[in-house]
Amino acid sequence: xxxxxxxxxxxxxxxxxxxxxxxxxxxxxxxxxxxxxxxxxxxxxxxxxxxxxxxxxxxxxxxxxxxxxxxxxxxxxxxxxxxxxxxxxxxxxxxxxxxxxxxxxxxxxxxxxxxxxxxxxxxxxxxxxxxxxxxxxxxxxxxxxxxxxxxxxxxxxxxxxxxxxxxxxxxxxxxxxxxxxxxxxxxxxxxxxxxxxxxxxxxxxxxxxxxxxxxxxxxxxxxxxxxxxxxxxxxxxxxxxxxxxxxxxxxxxxxxxxxxxxxxxxxxxxxxxxxxxxxxxxxxxxxxxxxxxxxxxxxxxxxxxxxxxxxxxxxxxxxxxxxxxxxxxxxxxxxxxxxxxxxxxxxxxxxxxxxxxxxxxxxxxxxxxxxxxxxxxxxxxxxxxxxxxxxxxxxxxxxxxxxxxxxxxxxxxxxxxxxxxxxxxxxxxxxxxxxxxxxxxxxxxxxxxxxxxxxxxxxxxxxxxxxxxx
Length: 470
Prior knowledge:
Shape: rod-shaped
Radius of gyration: 50 Å
Order of helices and strands: HHEEEEEHHHEHEEHEEHHEEE
Largest sheet: 6 strands, mixed
Structural class: alpha+beta
Mean pLDDT: 81
CATH class of the largest domain: Alpha Beta
Strand content: 15-25%
Number of strands: 13
CATH topology of the largest domain: Heat Shock Protein 90
């Protein structure tokens, strides 16, 4: 029973069930109409034969006495009787009714000359059509002529039985063909399911075999392979991320432990103030890495801050520059009324990361520009350091990536700042990339201007740019 329930719940079972229900309904209606039409048409034909035979006999009796037996016309009804209207005796009959009693008591009404009825066993199986015709004759005065014609034999039980057999045969053939057709259609799907089940987390390099059918199943296989590509990429990134995170956390933890162990090995000789300050720096380093990891986790989960506001990018940039304790001067060229839709806290984080990166690598100056170009707000952060080779311009946005030049200059940064900045830019429909520069590195942020999606002009109404050295 459980197996039958499982089969009925399967795609093939449901397809067969639906096909059976629809086919049964259509066939039942069709066969019912066929039986009704055949029986009705056969009854009409039999009635016409009987009426025509009764009229022929009536015309003959109008002038001549009835012959006994009454001859049956070649296409007429085989049962004929002439009954006296007054005494009900049989005056004459066809050969099949010779010596038989009156076959029916059916008689036309007083104001009518004809009445129709049926005649069944023992005369007809199945029943036939009977016509009773009252006429006045020269020899017998008033008589009733009975003429009865049988229905074809197949209009009885034969026709429904034949149609029932045909009905069951068609349903069975339909069910079998549907089962096989759906099975053939699902065979590639089952192959895809089987191959997918064999692909584990450690075997994400495998791909589904795409059938050369060019149909929905082939598109399903393509989609599965695309999904596996993304899964493999995500798994690779996750493993790399865990490895890099472990490496970044291990360094400050190892330094902290080493300092504490050395201090505890000779506590009377240890300058505890210096040890505590060094330990604090390691803890701050750990905290920075952990905070960046949490921020990336939120961005990966799409959990951006919900309080998106309309902000002036130039004003926000000026505020962030003003908060910084600068190692080198920052020249700001900030246009007004460059309005974007974003979370101020996330944008502040992005600006902080770009400014911190530029200050670490600048020799003498950092330039920050904000302007509107077309339908985009453009922020540029430019330093006058050694710059970044074109081959490394995308790699700097990878997580935990710090180029050799950056590592030789200082150990600052977690290697996650630029990754976080790009994720924030993309979250608000923008782009963050490295552009060409005659000296140093030039980071460019592009965000849609507020209202640009609704067909705004896009000039941003930017006021005259201002240049200042802060």
